Amino acid sequence: MIQMKNVTKKYSNGVVAVNGISITIRRGEFVYVVGPSGAGKSTFIKLMYREEKATAGDVLIDGENVGQLKNRQVPQLRRSLGVVFQDFKLLPRLTAYENVAFALEVTEHTPAEIRKRVMEVLDLVGLSHKARMLPHELSGGEQQRIAIARSIVNNPKLVIADEPTGNLDPDTSWEIMSIFEKINAQGTTVVMATHNKEIVNTARRRVIAIEGGIIVRDEDGGEYGYER
What is an example of a Pfam family matching this protein (predicted)? Predict the structure, then answer.
């Protein structure tokens, strides 16, 4: 699903956030990306959906070299992925239903198809009963569930999450993680950057640890391995 070949990202200020990384993530895996603040985790994640472009090396998503895409092709790439952020990024004037439906309205779906799919994913995240509510009427955990529903409404092969539980309390974080587990169980590849030691240590999934822009550990059934 993901291949990085000798990937380096150097910013204009001279900081090398990712330094010669090569990695393969297989279809259907659930992978945690861990490491101290400033280690390069977010850059590593952003390279996958072309928020950042590699200075050197190749990033392939499902066989497509995303670094070679023209800027006008990037939105099409992102429509084929699901991306979940720490701060939800919901549109404040749209209801929960409309926020999720928005991702489908730019594609060639009929209104009936959109309604059916939106209600399916709202049901998956346990919020079909709050479809008409605006983001400010929802709790932080509920907003993140809507953000997850939006990310999977297009049936992506890959979901990328950058600190999705960072702003949530522990109980809500576990609820959010159970949703990601459901998504992965349906065959979707999940790559998640996180500082949540308890979740990583309990899940025992593949763990990729990054320090100073390089991969220092890559193990199946791994632990977080850092003090918070």
Answer: ABC_tran
Q: Are strands 189-193 and 30-34 parallel, antiparallel or unpaired?
A: parallel
C-alpha gyration radius of the chain: 17
pTM of the model: 0.92
Q: Are 190 and 161 in contact (CB under 8 A)?
A: yes
- DSSP code of 149? H
- Count the Cβ atoms, other than its own, within 10 Å of residue 185: 10
List the Cα angle 111/116/121 in 5-degree steps.
125
Which H or E run includes 61? strand 56-61
Structure confidence at residue 166 as a pLDDT band (50, 70, 90): confident
Which residues, at least 6 apart from 217, have a Cβ–Cβ distance to it below 8 Å? 207, 208, 209, 225
Residue with tokens 């025992």: 204
Nearest to 35 by CA among 188, 222, 167, 182: 222
- The span from the CA of 208 to the CA of 121, in Å, is 29
**What residue type is 155 in one-letter code?**
N
Q: What is the pLDDT of residues 74-133, one digit of tens each?
A: 988 888 899 998 888 899 999 999 999 988 887 778 899 999 999 999 999 999 999 999
Structural contact between residues 200 and 171, judged by C-beta atoms closer than 8 angstroms: no
